[in-house]
Amino acid sequence: MRNFISVEDVQDINGLVRKALDFKADPLKNKQAGAGKRIGLIFLNPSMRTRLSTQVAAANLGMEAIVFNVGQDGWTLEFEEEAIMSGNTVEHVKDAAPILGNYFDILAIRTFPSLQNKADDYSELYIKQFIKYAGIPVLSLESATLHPLQSLTDILTIQEHFKEKRRPKIVLTWAPHVKALPQCVGNSFSQWVNAWGEADFVITHPEDYELDKQFTQGASITHDQDYALRDADFVYVKNWSTYNDYGRIYCNDPAWMLTNEKLLKTNHAKVMHCLPVRRNVELSDEILDGANSIVTQQASNRVWAAQAVLSELLKNTK
Ligand code: CP
């Protein structure tokens, strides 16, 4: 694995999940794999789970992790080629990334979308510029359109909780929120479940909240949440802003928030969310504090997914 920015960087999803579960069973089994190596964790945006789970994963592999919050502490970066830098940007990624490539063996980047310009966000310019200029393996800690470490964790968590000899029914449901959020988690979860191909996958959202077809193709899509929830084994809850008329909130209908009453339609579904979550806006207390919620186990599994990916990327370091 040269980089990890989408499911397309993975040849064998089940193999990577098995590797992550092996690390869960024995976290220090490869504690020398990263000895003498360093990973730079570069944050243009905030994080708790992604940052800490990747640091723990690196430590389990004997690697040093150094965190740099560019958004708070660094020079404002320019990403456009041939930019005339007379505005607010101070340093070009073309100058910064090769230096980071010399300091580190793996470079990990978190860079959210602007939600202002769809073409720019969906070109993934920022993370692609780091790949172009760093010269070392690049790991996405969530980019403008995708969150692959989260999605690998999600597939792993579903596999851990589903032991029946049939395909699980997985529902991705939109939920209300007070802010316009990226489409990354919904896109990425859809991309991974479709690529995995071992589930019946339904996406439900209000009208005009369609995600990009390049990620959802293969899923059934409905605006009827009650219909979607029938017999579901897993319900993945997430808000996203509009994709077509980009980055807007059209609907904040609290009727879309998952409740215990809605859960009765499912097959005792496990409820997932990537976190952070706005309680009683995006998800109810009764669900989050109830027996069906697996959000804590899901977030805990972030370590093993990160450790599996880092151990693959380490094979491409010098
Ligand atoms: N799920 C997730 O990416 O959490 P953080 O934003 O806290 O890293």
From TrEMBL:
Q: In which pathway does it act?
A: Amino-acid biosynthesis; L-arginine biosynthesis
**Residues where N(2)-succinyl-L-ornithine binds:** E142, H177, K238, R278
Q: Name one GO biological process term.
A: L-arginine biosynthetic process via ornithine
Against InterPro entries, the record matches this protein to: ArgF'-like, Asp/Orn_carbamoyltranf_P-bd, Asp/Orn_carbamoylTrfase, Asp/Orn_carbamoylTrfase_sf, Asp_carbamoyltransf_Asp/Orn-bd
Domain Aspartate/ornithine carbamoyltransferase carbamoyl-P binding intervals: 2-160
Query: Would I find Amino-acid biosynthesis among this entry's keywords?
Result: yes
- Recorded GO MF terms: amino acid binding; ornithine carbamoyltransferase activity
Aspartate/ornithine carbamoyltransferase Asp/Orn-binding domain location is 200-311
Its keywords, alphabetically, are: Amino-acid biosynthesis, Arginine biosynthesis, Transferase
**Which superkingdom is the protein from?**
Bacteria
> Per the record, what are the reactions this protein catalyses?
N(2)-succinyl-L-ornithine + carbamoyl phosphate = N(2)-succinyl-L-citrulline + phosphate + H(+)
Question: Which residues are involved in binding carbamoyl phosphate?
Answer: S47, M48, R49, T50, W75, R110, H147, P148, L149, Q150, C274, L275, R302
Q: Which Pfam families match?
A: OTCace, OTCace_N
The family line of this record is: Belongs to the aspartate/ornithine carbamoyltransferase superfamily. SOTCase family.
Instruction: Provide the function of this protein.
Output: Catalyzes the transfer of the carbamoyl group from carbamoyl phosphate to the delta-amino group of N(2)-succinyl-L-ornithine to produce N(2)-succinyl-L-citrulline. Is essential for arginine biosynthesis.
The protein's name in its UniProt record = N-succinylornithine carbamoyltransferase
To which species is this protein native? Answer: Pseudochryseolinea flava
The upper taxonomy is: Bacteria, Pseudomonadati, Bacteroidota, Cytophagia, Cytophagales
Q: Which gene encodes it?
A: argF'
